[in-house]
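Input sequence (425 aa), recorded before submission:
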Amino acid sequence: MPNIDKPLAFRVRPTKFDDVLGQKEVKGFLNNLIKNNSLVSMIFYGSPGTGKTTTARAFANSFNIHSINLNAVTDNKAVMEEAFKEAIRFYPTIIIIDEFHRLDKAKQDLLLPHLEDGDFYLIGSTTSNPFISINSAIRSRCKLLEFKPLDKEDIYLGLKRAISLKEGLNNSRQFDDDALKEIAKLSSGDLRFAYNQLEVISLSFLKEHVISKDDVKETIKYANYLSDKDDDEHYNLLSAFQKSIRGSDVNAAIYYLARLIKTGDIDSIIRRLLITAYEDIGLANPQAVDRAYQACETALKVGLSEGRIPLAFSVIDLSLSPKSKSSEIAIDNALSEVESTSYGVKEYLRNVANNKEDYDYSASELWSIITYLPDEIKDIEFYIPSQTGKYERALKENYEHLKENRKFSSINKAKEYLNKKKTKI
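Predicted structure, token format:
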């Protein structure tokens, strides 16, 4: 029978609040609660491996009161009902619920009256954005505390502790400092990932071998990516991707593209790239917008990983292109206007048969000198040209010329004007 222990990350999880690593701001608030012997219901949210559940349990252990651990995925409604009854029986009680965002409506409805009545203190733990995933009524009754990815220094300290602890590796393996720092760097702020890699590496070599940085690189092929296509961090990456293109930081845009490619979500990359092209580059460089579309079509046809090449081509093209948001601003200005006003369509623009003489003049003569907006807003300008690109500068020049010519709100007056003009010639 092999000697199989529970995972290292489980064995070295701190039980004392003072042993929890990182999260200085969160721990500052919680420490004040401990010193004041006070409790409030709370939601801990943040990326995986940042210590949410560990902190919740260690914090609960700091009070000499009853506590119950639940999981929103594995514990059904009946289990929760029994836990709530137990909590009331042993008041005051802290109930810790992991994967809090997984509570369905029935479970949330079950929980809410207990929070309203103060039957127990809740600590919910979630990797999702609580403003999206959690009922506002529950959210309003809880203090929200964000857990951020740990610093490399905190990860390093955690690894050192895991090696020395009796319940950890008990000094049975030797790592040089550079090896531990490499694990910390590759962990991207996720301490659980770091512990798991430490355990795998320790089992990959004989006890007498001193594990080096090269050994770590050989064992851990990829850094930890705090994102998959279904979690909140993925949307943070998409946002950073678009903002980097908008801000013309080509290196940042390429970096976030690489992070997104690692998730394999080519559809989200393409959607964000296309809207960025039209929203942020737009009329400053229409050719780059067309190239973005072609690059995205190519990437879809060839798939990943070859699709990374046309995507990178377009990201560089858009990042270094002149920018113009004038299209977006124009339509948003118009939408704002129509939300607050309503004017009739001019008679000569309505869908009725016009007198034949209306067509005696070509568009370049007649139709460019009449007005099309309702008289009440005939001078309003929704479109404000940008001058960042050659193409839109040419549009602006034509736009200014047309504004000077557009004089008449009547077909007949426009015709009179043109007749006089021709007579003079």
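Checked by second reader. The chain has 20 helices and seven strands.
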